[in-house]
Design a protein that fits this description.
Length: about 350
């Protein structure tokens, strides 16, 4: 082989190597531009999460998003099945299910240093484990307060303890343990009477008295809303968003943030343990905390935003779960992990003392 021929062959090999390398890099880059997202609930919630978070993020970052709807319990079951080989990179889950997933080591820690929007976000939005690692970020708060019929109730309730007022006897509805918000409300009732998670007697006695007085207990908020709408009850524990739905139907129902604070729930975004796209997943988490994303989710779902720089239109602000011109200071954000530790025992006690 001549020197010229040898140089031509080597040049061809080099070009081929560059082409193969370029193709490999392109394939790698494309793989990193695809993100699998699960647990975005369904219906208006799924539509809102897409519109507020996923579609804008995908457009800005050029990411292909593979999205799967599903309620939190189903999402947790899939994470368990896929442990070690996750099919999701990012998932949304409600707080109780979220805490269980964190406890089962299904969730990847989140590095705050990589989140550019963190400085404007309330501290309570960063969900930490026992080792003080951030494991999830709240995408928005909902809350349960009190709702009442303005035509039949002469004196509006102002406190959680007002559920026991004699004038409301037989016309009260409250969440049952079928709804996770029941337990934070029980803890609240205990705390207001000198107890707490380690001393729940007063809360169960309170609920027992409501039951004896003819109170109705329900699981889903729509069931409670129906009780109010049909006039079967005059006062109820209720998620704020359900009250606004009733008002839009022309019903004389209004929402009250109790003076002790509305009991908060939240939806959370998580990075799945074992994801191969952690950096990209982190960018999505960061985007959900941005002013534009938080304003959009608040407007669409009436969730309380976690970003303190968000300014809402007056008609949206008055429908926030913490009340008009309120903030997270008007919420009771209880320790969900402690509640998780006790929920089985409290459910048994409810069945024995309240639902008997």
């Amino acid at each position: 082989m001549t020197d010229v021929t040898r140089r031509q062959v080597l040049k061809g090999v080099s070009l081929a190597a560059v082409q193969v390398s370029s193709l490999s890099w392109a394939a790698s880059a494309y793989a990193q531009k695809s993100l699998s997202v699960g647990g975005i609930y369904g219906g208006v919630w799924a539509d809102s999460i897409r519109a507020a978070f996923l579609q804008p993020f995908g457009k800005k970052s050029g990411v292909e998003l593979k999205i799967e709807e599903g309620i939190s319990g189903v999402t947790l079951a899939k994470l368990r099945q896929q442990k070690g080989d996750p099919q999701f990179d990012v998932v949304w889950m409600d707080r109780v299910v979220s805490d269980q997933a964190i406890r089962e080591d299904l969730i990847e820690p989140i590095s705050l240093d990589t989140l550019s929007n963190r400085v404007d976000v309330v501290d309570s939005a960063f969900i930490k484990d026992a080792s003080n690692r951030v494991m999830a970020v709240t995408s928005g708060y909902w809350a349960a307060g009190l709702a009442y019929n303005t035509k039949t109730v002469k004196q509006a309730p102002v406190s959680w303890l007002d559920l026991g007022k004699p004038e409301y006897k037989g016309k009260v509805a409250a969440y049952s343990p079928d709804n996770a918000i029941c337990f934070p409300i029980l803890v609240t009732l205990a705390e207001l009477q000198g107890g707490g998670v380690k001393s729940m007697d007063s809360a169960f006695k309170f609920m027992n008295q409501l039951a004896k007085g003819g109170a109705v207990f329900f699981g889903g908020s729509p069931a409670g809303a129906n009780l109010l709408a049909n006039g079967e009850v005059d006062v109820a524990t209720m998620a704020s968003s359900q009250v606004w739905d009733l008002q839009e139907k022309g019903l004389p129902i209004t929402y009250v943030v109790p003076k002790e604070g509305a009991v908060a729930g939240d939806i959370r975004i998580h990075i799945v343990k074992g994801t191969k796209n952690k950096d990209l997943a982190m960018k999505l988490v960061d985007y959900t905390m941005s002013v534009e994303a938080q304003k959009e989710i608040a407007t669409r779902l009436l969730l309380g935003p976690v970003n303190t720089k968000v300014t809402l239109a007056p008609e949206i602000d008055k429908k926030m779960p913490w009340g008009e011109h309120g903030s997270t200071k008007n919420l009771r954000i209880l320790d969900a992990v402690t509640i998780l530790d006790n929920r089985d025992a409290w459910t048994r006690r409810w069945n024995e003392e309240v639902a008997k």
